[in-house]
From TrEMBL:
Keyword Metal-binding: no
Organism: Ridgeia piscesae (Tubeworm)
SUPFAM superfamilies (UniProt xref): Protein kinase-like (PK-like) (SSF56112)
Keywords: ATP-binding, Nucleotide-binding
Gene Ontology molecular function, alphabetical: ATP binding; protein tyrosine kinase activity
Positions of the Protein kinase domain: 1-236
ATP-binding keyword on record: yes
Entry-linked Pfam families: PK_Tyr_Ser-Thr
Gene3D superfamilies, alphabetized: Transferase(Phosphotransferase) domain 1
Protein name: Protein kinase domain-containing protein
Matches recorded under PANTHER family: TYROSINE-PROTEIN KINASE
PROSITE patterns: PROTEIN_KINASE_DOM
Signal peptide residue numbers: none
Length: 236
C-alpha cells in the first residue's frame, strides 16, 4: 500500500543510493488512478523465507548488521521507513541484505527548533493497515505517530521474527511466525501496555535477545540509534 507522497518525497526516494536499500525505479499510475512504486531489490528471496533454511544460521547476524547500516542511511537522509518486517528484507545470492517496501517511507521536515531528528514525529497514515500493528511500537500504536525510534523498535521485532522463524518448517503459516501471534491484532496494544516482552526463541543467543529488548525498550528514548545498533551487532 503506497501512502500519499509529495513530489519531494518521490524525488528524494529516487535519489537513494545504498547497497542495503532497494532502488526506487519509478512511480506508475495504475488503471484505477492509484500510484504504485516499482523497486529493484535484486532478489526475490526474503529474510523470513531464508530463516527456515538451516544453512543460513550463521549468516543471519551479518544480515541484521546490514539492515542496521541501511536504516542508518535512511535516517541520515531524514526518512522514516515505517514498515520494517522480515518479509520486506530481500537477500541476494551473494548474501547482501536489501531493505524493501519503501511505500510507507516518510520524509521528515525539520523545524528550526528541532535539534534531535530522532524525536521528530511524522504521521504517515491516519489509519495504518492492521497487518503492521504487530511490528509497531507502543507509542505508534497509541498515537499513530512514527519517529526514528519507532523504526528501531520495528527492527528489534524484525530480529525476533527472524529468530522465531529459524529452522521452522517452510510450510509453517506466516501467522504463526508473526509477533504476538497468540492474540488478535486489536489486542496487541493492550499486551504492550502490560509490558509483556516477546519471548526468547530457542535458537536466539542471549546476547542477541538482550539487543532485541534494548531495541524495543520503553520509553522510546531508551532505544539506541541505528549507528549504535550496528556497532552493538559488530562487537557481539
Amino acid at each position: 500500500m503506497l501512502k500519499e507522497m509529495s513530489e519531494e518525497e518521490k524525488d528524494q526516494l529516487r535519489q537513494l543510493n545504498h547497497p542495503h536499500v532497494a532502488t526506487v525505479v519509478r512511480f506508475v499510475m495504475e488503471t484505477d488512478l492509484s500510484i504504485s512504486m516499482l523497486m529493484d531489490c535484486l532478489s526475490d528471496d526474503t529474510l523470513l523465507a531464508l530463516m527456515t533454511r538451516s544453512e543460513h544460521l550463521e549468516s543471519r547476524f551479518s544480515y541484521y548488521e546490514q539492515i542496521a547500516d541501511g536504516m542508518a542511511y535512511l535516517h541520515d537522509r531524514h526518512f522514516i521507513h515505517g514498515c520494517l518486517q522480515a518479509k520486506f528484507i530481500y537477500v541476494t545470492p551473494n548474501g547482501r541484505a536489501i531493505i524493501g517496501q519503501l511505500a510507507r517511507a516518510t520524509l521528515v521536515h525539520l523545524d528550526v527548533y528541532d535539534d534531535d531528528v530522532s524525536q521528530v514525529m511524522e504521521q504517515p497514515f491516519e489509519n495504518p493497515p492492521t497487518n503492521t500493528i504487530r511490528w509497531m511500537s507502543k507509542e505508534t500504536n497509541e498515537s499513530r505517530f512514527m519517529t526514528q525510534k519507532s523504526d528501531v523498535h520495528s527492527f528489534g521485532v524484525l530480529i525476533w521474527e527472524a529468530e522465531n522463524a529459524l529452522c521452522q518448517p517452510s510450510d509453517t503459516p506466516s501467522t504463526h511466525l508473526a509477533p504476538y501471534s497468540h492474540v488478535e491484532y486489536d489486542q496487541v496494544v493492550e499486551v504492550q501496555r502490560q509490558r509483556h516482552t516477546l519471548p526468547q526463541s530457542p535458537q536466539c543467543p542471549d546476547w542477541l535477545y538482550e539487543l532485541v529488548k534494548a531495541f524495543t525498550a520503553n520509553p522510546c528514548c531508551r532505544r539506541p540509534s541505528f549507528p549504535e545498533a550496528k556497532r552493538c551487532l559488530q562487537i557481539r
